Structure formats: structure tokens, C-alpha cells
Amino acid sequence: MPVFDFNNTPDDKKAAECTYTIFYSGEGEATPEKPMMVLDNQMKKWEHHSLGMFTNPVKRTAFEFQQETGTVSADILKIDARFVSLLKWLGENHINVRLSGENTEEGYAVYKIREIAFGGGTKLSAEDGFLQFMIERLLASNAPEEEIEDEDQEETGDSMKLTSIQSITDFMNCAGRTLPDNIRLWARRNLAVARSHEVSPEERRHAQRALSMMMNIQWKSNYFEAIDPVEARRILDEELYGMERVKQRIIETIIQINRTHTLPAYGLLLIGPAGTGKSQIAYAVARILKLPWTTLDMSSINDPEQLTGSSRIYANAKPGIIMDAFSMAGESNLVFIINELDKAASGKGNGNPADVLLTLLDNLGFTDNYIECMIPTVGVYPIATANDKNQISAPLMSRFAVIEIPDYTPEEKKIIFSRYALPKVLKRIGMKEKECILTPEGLDAVISCHENTSGIRDLEQAAEHIAANALYQIEVNHVSSVTFDAEMVRELLLSC
Q: How high is the pLDDT of residue 360?
């Protein structure tokens, strides 16, 4: 016996009509001036917050406003190309929504959409959280090449994660076109595996885990904004005293981004003694580039599989730490800080970890054995640190702009200790500078005690020791301040 659905029944005499035109936008935020879409308001000026539902676009592409007197339909006039699939999906699933918009000369400009709970319609996965996640992801993406804030804080989708098969499916339906082509095809294949009952539960679990990891990464374009060289210099000065040549070389390397709007062809390799601030420089460069960063400590990596992950044929298979880094960052553009690159060739397992790094550094893409998909690496900027460049292979060296960082002179160490290290410690533990006084002879003694050590790491520990001792004397002996001369310093540090 046939069953008839009279909802949005197509008119046999009239073809479906598309009322809107598509415009292409790269705006990262929707506003009344730059809306997601524009609805017809000639018949009536719509309220700032309006409830209703997008029609299943069988006859006309419209929005049905819920009014006290009944339902009133308004045609969609314009829509951002990025939101076409989302609009269609909302209509097909009869999702009740609340629009936020303003009446303009062009029409009712919609800049927010929220799911609401009434009417018995189908709900999105995670309800409004998923919808906000989708909208934020679409706003962060580039418009497809072909057609296709006074609100509450809970509207944000930042905390939303795609973990269930349903939420991943919804994402693919709504925003699959924002993914790189190869990742989109890979996602479809893995989604089929995750849904299949013809494979083992273990295979389905691996496929779902891989999908969740890949779909939660925001795959950004390789376009980068220009940097401000003055601001870049200020950031470097904060992290590094002196070493003018080093700072200049760093800025010269990354300033290329201002003309090409792509990352420099070469990463940075910082070579110098331990404690000279190589890691701090790397963090500073990440701040300059305004990119998230992650670290790879090559001294702790004994097997290439730690980097590349293990095959899904194993029950305990898992992604490698490179893939984990992308997942933790939540985006494809980031700074990889590779610590102790000179230890990369000393693997104890099957193969050489340094060989894996070459695939990451070539910007041709990286494939994790667990994920089994080529990951674009054009947005990855590597910064490596090393103590001994003689232990680094020529192929690895050729991927970097090498910058040698010299050790500090005794005079530079004096300035760093007295102006930066000691005041920093005093501020951190809540002491005033007049409570802990170091005489010139005492300062000479601090430097003399560490004349055979490189860098300033030991000096920072000495500052910690002196400040802690001063605080102890003030609290126990009830003195107002402590002055350290050369003899007191030597007695306290015991390393002279």
C-alpha cells in the first residue's frame, strides 16, 4: 500500500525554483554588513531574533518564519557559497532554528543561526554545539571554487569534537567540500569501513579513530599574512639578550613571507651550546608567525615508528607523534620545534628516525602508517636545535638555514643575571629588589662560579638559589633585606 508524504510535495507542473544568487566570501566572521545570507523582507520587516525552519528546497528556497498568526515564508535572495550545503541539510532534516539578523536595504541580513529545541524535528548531533562548530569551521574556510556579538558565550563551537559516526557524517554532508580533495576521498572510504558490518569491530574502531582525528584538524590554506618586522624584533629582544647578528639573520629568513605570503623555503637550524636560549628563540619565532607550535624531542625517539605510527593490522595500533602533533594543534599550519636534531640519527630500532624527518621537511606531504593518507605539509615551518652540527647528516642540513648561536661572554652573563634572571625570580616569588641585594663583588663571584658552564641555564638556577635564601633569612631572622657579597655567594653556591 503506497504511503504519501504531503510535506513539501512537489508541483508536477512547476520545476523547483532557486530564488537565491551565490556570492563568494572569505570573511572569517559573519556580521550584518557581511552576512551568511539575505532573506526577502519586502513583505515584512523581520524581528532581530526570528524563529522558524528552512524549507526543504523542493519548490522554492525559502525560510518559514514562525509568527503568532501562523507561518510566513520569505525567499532566500543571497547566500554565501560556503553555506549552501548547510542550508540544504538544515532544510532536509527539518531543523528548527533561531536566526539573528538585521533589516537592510538588500533584505534581512542573517549573521547567526542557532538550533532550538521545539517542534519535534530531527536534531543535529550534539544539538546546537554541532551547528556552531559547523558554522565556525565554514567561516574559517575559503569559499569553494565552484557553486554548489552580544550573544551568549555558550554559542561557541570551540569545544566541539567530532567523535561519533553521526557527527562525522553530518560534517561530511555539510562541509566536506572544505577539505582537501585527497582527504575528502579518504574520509568517504574510511566512513564506509566504520559503518560496515563486513569488517571486524577492530577495523571499524580504527577507522572511526582515524576519522575523528582527521576531521578535527582544520585544514588551512598555505596563505600567510605578512609579519611586522618591528614587532618581530621586539619579540626577539624579549627572549634574547644581545646576539644582534642572530636576531637579524632570523628576521631576514622569515621576512620572505611578506612578499610570497607562503612560509620560507627553509626552516631554521639553531646550533649552539646548551643553555644559550635556542628553544626560547624557537618559541619566539612561533609567536612572530602567529602559529601554534609543537615539539619533537629526538633524543627520546629510538624507532621511526614513533614518528610514523603503526599499521592498523595490529590491535594496539596508534598514530605517530607527528600526527598527534597535528591533532593537538587542531590545524594543519604550525611550527614544528625539533629539539636535539643531532640525536636524530642514533635510532636503536628498525630504521633511522632522521629519514622520517626528511619526508616532513620536504613539504611534499607526510603519510602516517595508521592514518594512511597523505597529509599536506605546506603549512609546517620546522625549527630545529642542535649542539653539534657534525652529527647531522648533509640531507637534513640542506633543509635548513643554519644559524650558529655563540655562547655569552662573561660581561653579557653579568648583564643577563643582574637585569633579567634575578629580577625575574624575585618578581615570581613576590619579593622586592631591595630585599635581595647583590654587590658588584657578589655578581663577579656568581659569574666566576659558572665560568666553565655554557649558556645561562646555570645562572638562572643560581638566581633561584640566591633569592630563595634571601627570602628564608627575611622570614626566619626577621630582617628587612639581605645583601650578598662575594664570600656569601661562594658559600651559598658551593660550586666555586
A: 86
